[in-house]
Amino acid sequence: MSDGQLKDGGKGIKIDEVVKGSPAAQAGLQKDDVIIGVNRDRVNSIAEMRKVLAAKPAIIALQIVRGNESLYLLMR
Questions:
Q1: Less Cβ crowding at N or C end of the chain, within 10 Å?
Q2: Where is the PDZ domain (predicted)?
């Protein structure tokens, strides 16, 4: 994902920035969201997320934490 800035957080991947008009923005990702799952796989680091995305799935299901909420977003 190169739609903004990501930071390993130990318990997920924190979004530092989302580029306007990017697939991440279109999916609804926001600054300070934390990605904790990708396509049903738990991810704690950017390296783990890249392994899941290496298969180049057509649709990416993200499990994120926003504040106190757990949300699911779809990216194409």
A1: C
A2: 1-68
CATH number at residue 68: 2.30.42.10
Contacts of 59 (CB under 8 A, 6+ apart): 74, 75, 76
| Domains contained in the chain, number | 1
- Exposure string of 22-33, with b = 16+ CB inside 10 Å and e = fewer, is eebeebebeeeb
> Quick one: pLDDT band at residue 11, thresholds 50, 70, 90?
confident
Rounded Cα–Cα distance for residues 52 and 30 (Å): 21
Range of the domain at 20: 4-75
For residues 59 and 40, give the distance between their C-alpha atoms in angstroms, rounded to a whole number: 12
